[in-house]
Amino acid sequence: MGSIGWLWERHRFLMYQCFSLPFAFLFYFLTKRGHLSLTYRYLFVSIGGSVLAVVTMGVYSILLFTPTLAFFLLVRSVDPSCIHTWAFGIQMLWQTFWHLLIQYREYYLHEPVSIRLFLAVSTLMLLTQRITSVSLDLQEKRVVPTCGASSKRKACIMLLPLVSYILNFTTLLGGPLCSYGRFVSLMEGIDLSSPPSPLGVVFLKLIQVLMLEWVRFCLVYFLKHYTCDTKSGIFYGILWLWGLGLVLRIQYYSHWRISECLSNAAGFGFWENSSGVSSSEWNGLSDGDFWTTEASIRMSEFTRRWNATTASWLRRLVYARCKHFPLFASFGFSLWWHGLHLGHFVGFFTWAATVKADHHIHRNLFQKLTPTQRKIYTFLSWINAQMIVICIVIAVEFRNMTGLRLLSKTYIGLVPLVNIILLFVLKLSSLE
């Protein structure tokens, strides 16, 4: 019981996802055998999501059901040309209220916040992604609204896929953002011939999760027994903070991979590409791979690869629609979406500035280097990206002054500052 309790407390989110795996396999098995019609498939994933929300969040599941109902009513009553504005405004106001309530209880009342509330707000953020994504589809006429149905019963049946998309149990607690159109095609595409059994793929990805967690366990052991001490030297302090940053990032990689497992177990993430060759790796739905993301030699590369579906969502929601300073607007909205903590302000604006600096530095320096110099530049650029990512992750994850104090103990905080100074120098030199 001791080991089970430790697993539950340390890996609560992962355990919730693992407990959902049998139901995902059950959905796949029943659908492949022809026991679930399309309507019953939508009912299965939506009811499964509702039950999962109640079991994991208790009374705080109302945080999810309220905006889902509100969006359902919007689709039924608001013109598609302005539905995104309404959906975006209502959803962000609702989410911001709960973020600020958590801050009020933490920093003003100094009260412990229920883990169920944290889980509900985290899930609400994912719900915001799906609601705003489908509201954009409706506004851009990628999805045809069902308001003109001949009867209320028929309209409700036609809106069932929408509710299933929002409350899908495979992506409720975490997972790659899938467009509404692709979700519908995936639900319709599970038949006797496609997709093949995901059992082997899910098993391999679970092994990857175990390996990531083992690495994280070893790093945590090192960090606990060797504290960050400036007396031990600058290099030691940087190495300690690098380990801490990696521990925090591995949590995300594990969560993304287990979310992929859950989607794959239900038969999602496998389809044929344009050349007709099947995606045998089941990688159609993914938020990022550890090796690919950590091998990024530039901040702009890391930004595109980190939480890839969320990055695509931000590009569509903010970057592509913003006429002035789209990069800073995207990171500013991400700051709002994450909760407006002090660490978020420092982390996200540092991230935006260093991505901007990366574009200018690479464009001005890389073409002037010899092949040998480019190899050295690539290595130094990777180290530079790693140092910046450490600063951002620690500032964002700790949320308050604790992370900023950790960064101030070493000189690692100077790395993003040097990048920002170089940005201004290059800007000024281009004006001359």
Helix percentage = over 70%
Give the H and E element order: HHHHHHHHHHHHHHHHHH
Helical stretch tally? 18
End-to-end CA span: 70 Å
InterPro entries: LPLAT_7/PORCN-like, MBOAT_fam
GO cellular component, one term: endoplasmic reticulum membrane
Keywords: Acyltransferase, Endoplasmic reticulum, Membrane, Transferase, Transmembrane, Transmembrane helix
GO molecular function, one term: serine O-acyltransferase activity
Notable features of this structure?
2 domains, 432 residues, 73% helix, single chain, disordered N terminus, mainly alpha
In short:
The protein is an all-alpha fold.
Describe the structure.
GO terms for molecular function: serine O-acyltransferase activity. It is found in: Endoplasmic reticulum membrane. InterPro entries: LPLAT_7/PORCN-like (IPR049941), MBOAT_fam (IPR004299). The protein is mainly alpha-helical and 432 residues long. It has 2 domains: 35-189, no CATH class; 199-431, no CATH class. The chain is 73% helix and 0% strand. It has 18 helices and no strands. It has helices at residues 2-10, 12-32, 38-57, 62-77, 83-108, 115-139, 152-167, 180-189, 199-225, 234-265, 290-294, 299-305, 308-317, 326-338, 342-365, 371-398, 401-408, 414-431. The chain is globular and about 65 Å long. Residues 1-9 have low confidence and may be disordered.
